[in-house]
Design brief:
The protein is mostly helical and 88 residues long. The protein contains three helices and no strands. It has helices at residues 20-32, 37-49, 57-70.
């Protein structure tokens, strides 16, 4: 299957707040895949917008290991039930 030609896009800097351990796992996964954190997040979001899984079974295994390393015990069920610690 031929690759699509590279599309030129305009990227912007954004200031989003994410859970600390989640960021650690994402950064480690981006490093493992030899890509930037921004490229990883773009890929995840574009797959999610189409209802597709962004990760292969092998990558899920890597993510599970990284979650253990960084103590990330949150799940999708927690996504709308997170609150900042007091004073943050």
């Amino acid at each position: 299957m031929p690759l699509k030609p590279t599309q030129q896009v305009e990227r912007i800097q954004t200031g989003i707040r994410l859970e600390k351990r989640l960021v650690k796992v994402l950064k480690a996964l981006a490093e493992h895949r030899d890509m930037t954190l921004g490229d990883l997040v773009e890929g995840i979001v574009l797959h999610a917008f189409e209802g597709k899984s962004p990760f292969s079974a092998d990558t899920i295994t890597v993510i599970d290991s990284l979650r253990k390393i960084y103590g990330l015990d949150l799940s999708a069920a927690d996504s709308h039930a997170l609150a900042d610690r007091k004073g943050e």
